[in-house]
Amino acid sequence: MLTLSEFLTQIPKAELHYHLLGGVRMSTMLDLAKKYGVPLTEKEAKSYYRAYAHENEVMKGGIAALHFLYPLLREAVDYQRVAHEVLEDAKNTGIRYVEFFWNPNDTNLSYQAVTDALAKTFEQAEQEWNISAFLIPSINREKTPEEAVKMVQWMIDYPHERVLGIGIDYREDHAPIENFWKAYRLAEQHGLRLTGHCSEFGLHWRNVETGLDLLNLERIDHGYTVIENPELTARCARLGIPFTVVPSNTFFMKKWPNHQDWQKNHPIRQMAKAGMKIIPATDDWHMHDTNGVKCYEVMIEDFGFDLDGVRQCILNGIDAAWQPESLKQEWRYHWMKEFDDLRAQLVEEPKIAPELYTQYGPKTF
Fold first, then answer.
1. How many domains, in total, are found in the chain?
2. pLDDT tens digit string along 38-52?
3. Which of 145, 238, 303, 338 is most exposed, with the fewest beta carbons within 10 Å of its own?
């Protein structure tokens, strides 16, 4: 018989929103700093990781960690170490498929060198652990639109089977997605898949609308303020636009420090109630102190999902993965059979508190 935690660990899952360097272990950060003679105390390293955050100390968080880590990774083997450890952590929580964001414009190495290094590690992990990993080069929107076009041109000049499409991340406040239309148009013209971080830090819902209508995004990362526009929300639900949502997103934890307020008001709950196609994701694994199990525990314990809802989220992840339909059909059959077999071994199904339960099941997605 299985506990709920054991069940959530073993069920197969797809992870579609994971920043590669957001999964760097703190011990690895310290090792790399030592390797290159970069001053970094353990206390300073801890400031990037929420697991070590204290009320009287500032937590720098994921974006600050990316700013620190990209200059720190100076050789291909550094990327390979990180990728190997990240995939090891992922497979230990039942993740079978990952699409990683990384930022080519931020690295000290060439696009080709990093792509080749990561691809080699992915191939080894697939043979060793039966976990598949792919890349989504992502625009750093804190840089210029011209830099974004340059990144896409690198992708065009060096196509690779492990590279699926493009994304965009970093702080959105002064860099709405329409600024980068040329990069997206160029990527689309060359058959690359399209996703983008939109409306993340409480920013306006029009960023989602612009991403869909101007840039032809297939998937939205975050997108939480979409619920402030009922018409747009209904449209996204009707069309089945996939949204990768992050239960550990720090913005809402700061907005609603009272846990009950956070549970009640979190937009992920509202998005599910509206029938949107959502896929739980970890974002910055170690920086956010989450993983592939904790992510789904929050969906159940805080957002009121039952196991039918969890099952549907996993199906949503398969649907939204950028892989051939024939492969996804295999996953639907085998993963869901595995899910159902493991579910039958549960000691008991989770009891959802009445104030949380909203009957998230297959028909509501």
1. 1
2. 999 999 999 999 888
3. 238
In a domain, 56, yes or no: no
pLDDT at position 351: 77
CA-closest candidate to residue 244, choices 141, 98, 104, 66:
98
- What tokens were used for 251? 């913005």
Question: Does 251 reside within a domain?
Answer: yes
CATH classification of the domain holding 310:
3.20.20.140
Pick left, alpha or beta for residue 223 (phi over 0 → left; psi -120 to 50 → alpha; otherwise beta).
left
Instruction: Identify the domain containing residue 167 by its residue range.
Output: 4-27+79-364
Task: Note whether 159 and 122 are within 8 A (CB).
Answer: no
Among the listed residues 247, 306, 312, the one whose alpha carbon sits nearest the alpha carbon of residue 276: 312
Report how far apart, in Å, the C-alpha atoms of 335 and of each of 10, 79, 86, 174 are. 11, 30, 22, 41
pTM: 0.94
Q: Whole-angstrom Cα distance, residue 268 to residue 225?
A: 10
| 3-state secondary structure string across the chain | CECHHHHHHHCCEEEEEEEHHHHCCHHHHHHHHHHCCCCCCHHHHHCCCHHHCCCCCCCCHHHHHHHHHHHHCCCHHHHHHHHHHHHHHHHCCCEEEEEEEECHHHCCCCHHHHHHHHHHHHHHHHHHHCCEEEEEEEEECCCCHHHHHHHHHHHHHCCCCCECEEEEECCCCCCCHHHHHHHHHHHHHCCCEEEEEECCCCCCCHHHHHHHHCCCCCEEEECHHHHHCHHHHHHHHHHCCEEEECCCCHHHHHHCCCHHHHHHHCHHHHHHHCCCEEEECCECCCCCCCCCCHHHHHHHHCCCCCHHHHHHHHHHHHHHCCCCHHHHHHHHHHHHHHHHHHHCCECCCCCCCCCCCCCCCHHHC
- Cα 356 vs. chain centroid, distance in angstroms? 25
231: amino acid identity, one letter: E
Q: Is residue 62 part of a domain?
A: no
* 219, two tokens: 């998937």
The verdict on residue 37 lying in a domain is no
